[in-house]
Design a protein that fits this description.
Helices cover 40% and strands 13% of the residues. By secondary structure, the protein is α/β, with parallel strands linked by helices. The chain folds into 2 domains: 245 residues, Aspartate Aminotransferase, domain 2 (3-Layer(aba) Sandwich), CATH 3.40.640; 122 residues, Aspartate Aminotransferase, domain 1 (Alpha-Beta Complex), CATH 3.90.1150. The longest helix is centred in the last third of the chain and has 23 residues. The structure holds pyridoxal-5'-phosphate. Pyridoxal-5'-phosphate binds next to helix 4.
Length: 381
């Protein structure tokens, strides 16, 4: 049973249906200008571009640049903006709880001579805006603070961070891979300069995403990471993934249609899961902000159990743990560490990611399975 919807989501059947003809019938290259196959593909890409733009409140569809996913978008935003618009010695500011695909490009900029500042977070995982204010007293090319965290779900005060950056003359980027389609996002008129998105976090296909790049007040021109054909106005060359882009657009439209009601439903399920677990197991400290949090995210510590045995004991329920296992090391995650969670407790944490296809019955089953596993592990002492 699948409760790992912050890692990835099932592609919505309506999205699959929208994609299929672009593999089998209308398989043209969107850059082909000499025949109808190409024209139709190009038109479909423009429809999707408008759907993605609408989900985040972008003023113009052409501000959406299609990429292979949020990892590429984050790399393009940080490296493309800093190298085009800044120079070595300038500061780049990121938060301590960013995804690796923001932290690692920031470190690469550090090796190019940029001064990288990492902002601390509080116990709930919220970025400290006072330390941002202090950091911004030095020349800064770019600030990057995510919209929602992928491990604990905390919604960052990114609009306030964007305002501080703008006042200081710095660009602002937000990684909205988790927030988009889950909570309302309005990037225009004064929000972020760049926003990263990923289709597979919102019931679209893997391997496609986008970077919103502001074209007015100011118009941004990024240094491309790839060089080749002129696609995406030269910012991201390469033959467009037409079926993936069509699916991404459709996924954005679906997510936008049901955003509020789905958020209420997921919050209800999430709280039901939390209550069921605590009824059985006693208090379970919450990782993440108690209220400013993604509706489908529940990250809990399980005191009194050996972290290394927790996930294997929950066999049958697909979950993530509080370790940095995705990056191949067994220490606690950098997010929980930055929040000041004790290392042993961090390792004894589970992330439940509820999604569009999660039912009441599944939540009750998962609560039962996990509670049984934890009681057994506690018994082993
Ligand atoms: C999943 C995720 C990414 C990476 O997105 P991909 O499309 O898988 O490359 C980046 N940032 C956050 C916050 C994510 O959750």
């Amino acid at each position: 049973m699948y409760l790992d919807n912050l890692a990835t989501t099932r592609v919505d059947p309506a999205v699959v249906a929208a994609m299929v003809p672009w593999f089998t019938e209308d398989y043209g290259n969107a850059a082909s200008r000499t025949h109808a196959f190409g024209w139709r593909a190009a038109e479909a890409v423009e429809v999707a571009r408008a759907q993605v733009a609408a989900l985040i409140g972008a003023e113009r569809a052409r501000e959406i640049i299609f990429t292979s996913g949020a990892t590429e978008s984050n790399n393009l935003a940080l490296i493309g903006a800093a190298t085009a618009l800044g120079q070595p010695g300038d500061q780049v500011v990121v938060s301590a709880v960013e995804h690796r695909s923001v932290l690692d490009p920031a470190a690469a900029l550090g090796r190019l001579g940029f001064a990288v500042t990492v902002l601390p977070v509080d116990r709930g995982g919220s970025v400290d805006l006072d330390s941002l204010r202090r950091a911004l007293t030095r020349p800064t090319v770019l600030v990057s603070v995510m919209a929602a965290n992928n491990e604990v779900g905390t919604l960052q005060p990114w609009a306030e961070a964007a305002e501080l950056a703008r006042t200081a003359g710095a660009l602002f980027h937000t990684d909205a891979a988790q927030a988009a389609g889950k909570v309302p996002l309005r990037v225009a008129p004064t929000g972020a300069d760049m926003v990263s998105l990923s289709a597979h976090k919102l019931y679209g296909p893997k391997g496609v995403g986008a970077l919103y790049v502001r074209t007015r007040r100011p118009r941004l021109r990024l240094q491309p990471l790839l060089h080749g054909g002129g696609q995406e106005r030269g910012t991201r060359p390469g033959t467009l993934n037409v079926p993936g882009i069509v699916g991404f657009g459709r996924a954005c439209a679906l997510a936008g249609d049901n955003l509020d009601s789905e958020a209420v439903r997921l919050q209800g399920l999430r709280d039901r899961l939390h209550q069921a677990l605590e009824r059985d197991l006693g208090p379970l400290p919450l990782n993440g902000h108690p209220r400013q949090r993604l509706p489908g995210c529940l990250n809990l510590c399980f005191p009194g159990v050996d972290g290394a045995r927790l996930l294997p004991a929950c066999r049958g329920v697909a979950l993530s743990a509080g370790s940095a296992c995705a990056s191949g090391d067994s220490g606690p995650s950098h997010v929980l560490a930055a929040m000041g969670v004790d290392a042993a407790l961090a390792l004894a944490s589970l992330r439940f990611g509820l999604g569009r296809f999660t039912t009441d019955d599944e939540v009750d089953y998962a609560a039962g399975r996990v509670a049984e596993a934890v009681r057994w592990l506690r018994g082993l002492g």
